[in-house]
Write a structure and sequence with these properties.
Component of the eukaryotic translation initiation factor 3 (eIF-3) complex, which is composed of 13 subunits: EIF3A, EIF3B, EIF3C, EIF3D, EIF3E, EIF3F, EIF3G, EIF3H, EIF3I, EIF3J, EIF3K, EIF3L and EIF3M. The protein has 333 residues and is α/β, with parallel strands linked by helices. It has helices spanning 24-37, 77-90, 112-124, 135-138, 152-160, 165-170, 190-202, 217-271, 282-285, 295-332; strands at residues 19-23, 45-53, 56-64, 97-103, 129-133, 145-150, 179-182, 184-187. It is built from ten helices and eight strands.
Length: 333
Amino acid sequence: MASRRDTSPGTSLESSVKQVQIEGLVVLKIIKHYQEEGQGSEVVQGVLLGLVVDDRLEITNCFPFPQHTEDDADFDEVQYQMEMMRSLRHVNIDHLHVGWYQSTFFGSFMSRALLDSQFSYQHAIEESVVLIYDPIKTAQGSLSLKAYRLTPKLMEICKEKDFSTEGLKKANMGYESMFEEVPIVIKNSHLINVLLWELEDKSTAVEKHELLSLSSSSYHEKSLQMLMDRVDDMCQDISKYNNFSRSLSKQQQQKHQYIQRRQQENAQRQSRGEPPLPEEDLSKLFKPPQPPPRMDSLLIAGQINTYCQTVKEFTSQNLGKLFMAEALQGHGS
């Protein structure tokens, strides 16, 4: 469990996490982990260590999950994590578990696997967060690192494991209320800041014209392509639900007709002085069709919303570059 340090005797132990403070070294370790082991769409993951101070989660260290193949059948991830945290504790480094991190490919991270993993972390450690690192977007010139937590509403649904349409409707659950993003602050020690200033003074001037480059169609094209793929998945999911609704309506109609026929036969038998027909278990005669899982639809909708926000941010930056280039061209002429 993450440790808390109270600044006053009246501080509540149940305060929620409202800010994530990350050491600069942790960010570099996450980036280095992907550069060494991540290839293309391959996902890398690791453990976050730190502590909780009031409503702020401080991430001070991390270590990666090792890549293992099918041949490593005896590898135990839980035992590996415990040994790593035990070793860190022996050298007096923060070893308290506060969450995990994962890389993503073009912002594609909302999946059932991530939902189940974060629920397990957050159920065991209330303050847990998941850091999502996007190396493709980072390569475009801005660090893409976001912290997410499951909302209390979604935590209750996952505890009850009621992902039916009625359960989600009763909880008023939508894709926008599944994950909550926690603000991130990257902090360095004063010695690190002094070192960065010295390195900046000693380093030679670097040309930064690539930040104004307008050739970004490949990234934009890939984002739109993945957005269209998710829209196709949503259409297929809607089609499955419509088929389920039609099958359920047809079965209800057949059940109603069967009950009416039985009532007419019993009325005729009663008029002839015969005993009525024995009652039958309608649930065995008319087994309701299995409804499709609705949580997958919410995850797809959430991923579509993430893609739309990414495209919106990217296009707004490009439009700014275009207006700047137009102004410079007009000024030069």
